[in-house]
Amino acid sequence: MIFENTVQFREVLQTYSIKKGVNLKLKPNEKERVREKCTKKGCPWHILDSIEGSTSNFRVITYYPVHKWYNKTRNKMCNPPWIAKKFKDRIISEPQIKLYQIQALLRKSYGLYVSKTSCRREKMIVMKENIGDYKKEFARLHDYAEMLKSTNPGTTIVIRTSKDSIPGKEVFMGIYVYLEALKTGWLEGCKNIIGFDGAFLKGICKGELLSCISKDGNNQMYPVAWVVVEKESKDTWSWLIRCLKHDLNLTETEGEGLTIMYDMQKCARATFEVYFSKKLDEIDQLRGDIVQDLLKYNKETWCRAYFKEHSKCDVVENNMCETFNSWILAARHKSIITMLEEIRIKCMERMNSMREFSEKWVGDISPMAMEILGENAQRAAKCEVKFNGETGYEIQDGPYKYVVDFRRCSCTCRSWQLKGIPCAHAITTMHYKNYEVEPYVDHWYRKDTDVKAYSKFIQPLTSMNLWPKRTLPAIEPPVITAMPGRPKKKKEKSY
Q1: Which of 43, 238, 297, 489 is packed most tightly, with the most Cβ within 10 A?
Q2: Which segments of 152-220 are extended strands (E)?
Q3: DSSP letter string over 5-16?
Q4: SWIM-type domain: from which residue to which, for each copy (predicted)?
């Protein structure tokens, strides 16, 4: 066997030692020769590798391959650098991985027990190499903003700094990012609904990432904009909303016609008032004060029965924001520019994959809308229709009777108006009159609308070491402060 140098030879022996479960000792360990023996007393296994004079390669001179001892559960060769090399990709993709999970991976893969200290050091090696230099990245935020605006014209980036925290220096307070491709896509192809939510950052400087997310024609999340701030507060939310009002052209209309969801908002699913009242009566039987406490809040903000009909979206939760937060979970462990770049790249790749997905739709209606139409068609088969001879239809569905009006594209259950997709009662009348159902689906769910949402392209960006340096002063990272919430306490060990 021939090796390029002693470094390669040692790496091969280290991997052999760990996979075989044996402890090896190097003696001598020199540049010209390396001898390795098994540490078990009486074991004849040994190997000698030395330089070959004519070729300068390292050749195995002697090798005795038989061991008298195997399967040690502890191995000094399994050190943090080796573990970091083997599990680098796993840790980068899951920065939140726990130490006991790394221990379990080593036990499962190699049958070895490794201490938590070694796993912690290994994780620190990987994170230090891949999360970026946080001080250097904060200092180059102005360069990042200029590069992003030059490669993606129309993109909005706003950086907030403070000169009060550290006299004579600009200290980071926040950065707002709204890519032009996402801006145009939302204005042309997404529903008039946005959700707000915040997520804690896990890097050295902590902080929070506040996001604004919408929905496309297939009811999937559509990232709109995001900001990184020191902490969540009325001031930081107000700043985000002011920036969005300008970018979404909402300054004159004050957001009229726009539906907003936030993380504290949960909704009742009843689409009409009678059904809503019935459910309140059922809740009231559980405990008398529940309904009274519930009705203290404005019903128009949490009950479908009182929703306005313009958004064509009847979502009852803020899952679109929760999906985004989990989607960027790995990025939230990294330093500022590394994190923002990973989010940009994920959005760039998502725009491309969703563009290809919409082009593969079987028909003109989104798959999600077709699935709802199929479910409503099954319900329609159990409904009974009465026609007045003009435009009015009475639909008997269980204990309730509904009225469908084709001129207004409405049903008294309000599901058709809220969602923009014909309800079971509307489909019953369409089947009765032998009408096609798809023409009555709202334009938000059509292929040409969805294609507009993903028609623009997010342009690529070079690495940070290739950016030109600006004359603007460097930005200092924020002062690390304790985050809101009750601090953790050490538990006393019981012996």
Answers
A1: 43
A2: 156-162, 170-178, 193-200, 208-215
A3: SHHHHHHHHHHH
A4: 402-434
